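can u pls check wat happens w/ flavin-adenine dinucleotide
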Amino acid sequence: NRALVWFRRDLRVDDQAALYQALKSADEVFCAFILDRDILDALPREDRRVEFILGALQVLDEDLRQRGGALIVRHGFATDEIPRLAAELGVQAVFTNHDDEPAACKRDALVAELLQSFNAELRTFKDHVIFERREVMTAAGGPYGVFTPYKNAWLKKVDEFYLSSYPVERHAQALAKSKLATGVPALKGIGFKPAGLPSHVSQGSRGAQGLLEDFLNRIDEYDRRRDFPAVKGPSYLSVHLRFGTVSIRRLARIAHERMQGGDHGAEVWLSELIWRDFYHQVMHHHPHAMTAAFRPEYDAIRWETGAHADELFAAWCEGRTGFPLVDAAMRQINQTGYMHNRLRMVVASFLTKDLGIDWRRGEAWFARQLLDFDLAANNGGWQWASSSGCDAQPYFRIFNPTSQSEKFDAEGRFIRRYCPELADLPTPAIHAPWERAPLDMQGIDYPRPIVDHAVARERTLERYAVVKRRD
Ligand code: FAD
């Protein structure tokens, strides 16, 4: 019998659940990826992610060919292409991994229905997270709404079974090559232009391997280094986790083992991986929160709108708010498709609580810019910062962009990297250049602050008063 593996956010051959299950149960296994026009048609023509995906597909195709298979790549609508391919290849089942985003759930339900009409089935597996859906629930049987008890339950449940790899190699002889596998198209072939991936973005599963090796040399220092954007502290693996060019089981296993050996850095890093699972289960249980406030009372907040708000929003997007750390962070995301976690929190707080702009506008900007854009994590992060989310920051906790800068980029190294016009300012002045005498700022083309933080803070407390009674 024959099977088709439909790759989506799992672009690797090692430890891949759907691939393993297909190889184990069929004699001939074909592999495919659909460049889905339902997703791609809405993107700007220079989207960096498309370039990343094509690079990852190239590596995936090579890895499959080395094992006797090959990747079929189609550009079209997945809901047309998958049933069509299944029919052309004469497969009895299509194997794929869960994607719990609301739009993906709808797509998969439709594909399953179409496959059924000619007696083929869609078989789906967990691959993207350690625990999903209803796997970690409270004693009362409901989903967790607070991270720490979720994390404790996660750690209690996790064991070797959940962390061990799927031994794909053991059954790789079932991989089959179809004449439909004609290689990975070029960007131009699917109507996109090069976006210029930053040179540090390493491609495909081989790139992920390199980053992981590098990170493992400093994972024990993660807890001490991770908050400082000028320091190489985090793993930079987020884009690989997003597209599955690295296995979450492999990462969680390494972190868990090291944690048990007393490595505090690994323990804190594992906690971040658990946040990732947490937000995924939030998305599954509360799909409404992907477009509205998780806590509905927060949708009563009146955000700033109109021409002035649009100007403020544009200044934020373009990194010209007059707050150096905020501007450096926004230039980082725009130039590289990545932003350091501390800075994501700082700029999200700045947009919602200093500028009074709806978190959904910031969320959408991140969704367009981030290579690692992930609906569950991005929405979770934005709703955390705007205080409307599940286990979010209290609304009265308002980051001061200047003290964040003094604390987390004390020497201004990160600011100098992305705001070179400020590079020559003495360190104490780089966090608040508006405090310098105008004469000292002569010749420096840098905006004055677009908002007064102290005034904005008061306005935000008033704005959030509509939810105060319930907090
Ligand atoms: P590391 O510090 O090495 O962490 C390892 C991995 O843990 C990350 O790759 C990521 O998969 C996961 N992780 C870490 N922190 C979080 C978190 N708070 N929530 C969920 N998962 C986490 N992360 C995304 O992957 N995609 C997004 O679209 C995204 N948007 C965000 C938006 C906002 C406003 C905020 C505050 C955070 C967002 N995050 C998002 C979470 C976090 O900022 C990034 O995962 C992290 O900066 C990626 O860098 P890294 O791989 O070097 O992280």
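The pocket of flavin-adenine dinucleotide is lined by residues 226, 234-238, 241-242, 272-273, 275-276, 279, 341, 344-345, 348, 366, 370, 372-374, 377-378, 380-382, 385 (CB under 6 Å).
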